[in-house]
Amino acid sequence: MKIASDVAGLRAALKRYRAEGKSVGLVPTMGAFHAGHLALMRTSAQEMDRTVTSLFVNPIQFGPAEDLARYPRCPESDARQAAEAGVDLLFTPGAAEMYPPGFRSRVEVAGLSDRLCGIYRPGHFSGVATVVLKLLNLVQPDRAYFGWKDAQQLLIIKRLVRDLNLPVEIVGMATVREKDGLALSSRNRYLEPAERRAAPRLYQVLREIADRLAGHPETAIEPVLAGARRRLEKSALIRLQYLEAVDPETLDPAGEESREVLVALAAWIGSTRLIDNIMVSRHG
Q: How far is CA 74 from the centre of its chain?
């Protein structure tokens, strides 16, 4: 595996891949790899001739009161795991490489960025869209791989690619979970033992909602959500931020006629904010 820390090195490697007629897959990450990241890399390595993984903690997607300074960074183990997963090129730019002095441009996907997490993290998805667009422009991959755990992010990126006619296929892959259902996240390592024991309750409640709604178009959505919110709020360790059912294309509130519903939540467990979601087919 090669490592490029600047745009020049990245482009030099990519020029060789293209000259050889190789297909290229991209896995954008912020590092602190877990099995979810590695699943994306392995899939790209299986499907594409060459796989590029970016490792960049993107400062412009963090708000002033968020955890940029303490976001986990473990570049040595990340590099080892990426190589073992079949990555050919690891791109590890610094902030000054991605946002040189005088950088002024931002990308906004209107309508999708101000829902769900966007309500509580203003500017976050603009930062995500900006860095992803930069990476897609730099690498020009044939496919780029993202996880459904960050469903809103994935939908925003799909819309960005569609709206701007970018020649890349966005591949969404299923959330990877612990045996108890907790969605894998780099932030899970922040959880204290009691908090870690409480965290699987998030997915348990999502599954309960899915069981109530899946294949039952006659069941009203909001009463089911209200009951689930009450159950979560009974836990002293869980502070629910939102639990909503939305259209998986527009993120508008799901109507009773919706055939597919994305049920998404965000909650604080101690000082750690976790998100999760589940897709529900209302008509079987």
A: 19
Q: Mind listing the pLDDT tens digit for each residue in 3-59?
A: 999 999 999 999 999 999 999 999 999 999 999 999 999 999 999 999 999 999 999
165-197 pLDDT, tens per residue?
999 999 999 999 999 999 999 999 999 999 999
SS3 245: strand
The residues with which 24 forms a beta bridge, in sequence order, are 50
Confidence category of residue 284, pLDDT binned at 50, 70, 90: low
Topology (CATH) of 186-279: Pantoate--beta-alanine Ligase; Chain: A,domain 2 (3.30.1300)
pTM given for the model: 0.97
The β-bridge relationship of strands 260-269 and 238-246 is antiparallel
User: Is the confidence at residue 259, as pLDDT, over 80?
Assistant: yes
Using an 8 Å Cβ cutoff, are 46 and 38 in contact?
no
What would the two tokens of residue 41 be? 């890399």
Nearest to 4 by CA among 54, 67, 74: 54
Q: Which part of the chain has CATH 3.40.50.620?
A: 2-173
Q: What gap in Å lies between CA 48 and CA 215, rounded to an integer?
A: 37
> How confident is the model over 64-73, as a mean pLDDT?
92
Task: Choose among 170, 229, 166: nearest CA to 201.
Answer: 229
Q: Which of 37, 124, 216, 283 is catalytic?
A: 37
Catalytic residue flag (residue 37)? yes
Beta strand ranges found along 175-271 (DSSP E): 238-246, 260-269
CATH number, domain 2-173 = 3.40.50.620
